[in-house]
Amino acid sequence: MTSGTKSPAACLIGWPAAHSRSPLIHHYWLRTLGIEGGYVIEAVPPGEFGDFVLRLSVRGFVGANVTIPHKERALALSKPDDRARAVGAANTLWFGDGELRSTNTDVEGFINNLDACAPGWDGAEEALVLGAGGASRAVLFGLIERGIKRVHLANRTLSRARALADQFGASVAPVAWDSIGDLLPRAGLLVNTTSLGMHGQPALELDAGLLPQNAVVADLVYVPLQTPLLAAAQGRGLKTADGLGMLLHQAVRGFELWFGRRPEVTPELRALVEADL
Ligand code: ATR
Fold first, then answer.
1. Are 10 and 62 in contact (CB under 8 A)?
2. Which residue of 63, 122, 141, 189 pairs with 258 in a disulfide if CB–CB is 3.0 to 4.6 A?
3. Does the pLDDT of residue 4 top 70, yes or no?
4. Residue with the nearest Cα to atom 28 of ligand 1?
5. Fold identical between 9-103+250-274 and 107-241?
6. Which ligand 1 atom minimizes the distance to the CA of 136?
7. Are 188 and 123 in contact (CB under 8 A)?
8. What three-state secondary structure class fits 122?
């Protein structure tokens, strides 16, 4: 193809092909900002991922989102920024200074969603993070970057919490799952990164009544949108940040890198994606 004659397009690379809200989000921004461009889903099996990424530009793409199972490989095949390196996975690729570069936009998505939903949340002295998977890494990196001094990391499998905490230094302390109740009264910020509360999964059993009066509660689960945890927190009048907000905010950076304009997370976009959940 001849570059410069076609409108820019990005893609979401995953395997197997799965339903994603990303096309809806990026098409909304392209439309409302009046940018001629595209965003498509590309189902690429693991064995073909390397070749696909190396030929991304030849295929006519200005960049890509990367999802399961390719995020670690995407990191290895590109020049990652600090966030992607710290999280150990890249979810966004773009070209900068002639190189294929990568970042992990979950960090920014998590933090910017909190800023939007609960300004001042970073005044919390102690945070309690539940879960020690990939999502938890992005959350921990964001919290430390924002200067939260003490993060308690609780996970059903304590060894995973220990291993993750080790990578983040002294401000992250691994704690046993059954000590959550003891830590809630000190948690100015509570974050659920586990799958508990997700549609089809068991509920997250904890007493939100134990949280301090001005606590902020974030849940990364977004199906259902209002998890039992968020409902309990809101019932107490606490500020909350939901998983859909994080999903929308994490998409901002990719769009900006590919299409050159920083889009906004509007109530209209939220309603559009909510209708697709
Ligand atoms: P992700 O990359 O989305 O964070 P993950 O790596 O599969 O996903 O991690 C899922 C998290 O949910 C883990 O912290 C997991 O706990 P374990 O490390 O003990 O597996 C947590 N989780 C899943 N089901 C759970 C349950 N029934 N009770 C408590 N924690 C659970």
1. yes
2. 63
3. no
4. 156
5. yes
6. 4
7. yes
8. helix
pLDDT value at 136 more than 50: yes
- Average the pLDDT over 251-269 and give the result: 98
* Topology given in CATH for the domain delimited by 107-241: Rossmann fold (3.40.50)
How far CA 233 is from CA of 35, 215, 217, in Å, comes to 40, 9, 7
**Number of Cβ within a 10 Å radius of residue 276:** 10
> 196 CB under 6 A from ligand 1?
yes
pLDDT for the residue 51: 98
Provide CATH code, domain 9-103+250-274: 3.40.50.10860
Which residue's entry shows tokens 């100015």?
188
Going from N- to C-terminal start, the domains of the chain cover 9-103+250-274, 107-241
* Residue that has been written with the tokens 């392209």 in this structure: 30
DSSP codes joined into one string, 146-178: TT--EEEEEESSHHHHHHHHHHH-TTEEEEEGG
Q: What is the pLDDT of residue 5?
A: 61
Nearest residue (CA) to ligand 1, atom 7: 133
Length of the chain: 277
Give rounded-to-5 percent helix, strand, coil for the chain.
45, 20, 35
Residue 14 host element (H or E): strand 9-14
The sign of the torsion formed by the CA atoms of 264, 66, 61, 42 equals: negative
Which residues pair with residue 30 across a beta bridge?
Answer: none
CB-ligand 1 contact for 75 (6 Å cutoff)? no
The catalytic residue positions are: 71
Cα of 156 vs centre of ligand 1, distance in Å, is 7
β pairing state of 79-80 and 99-103: parallel
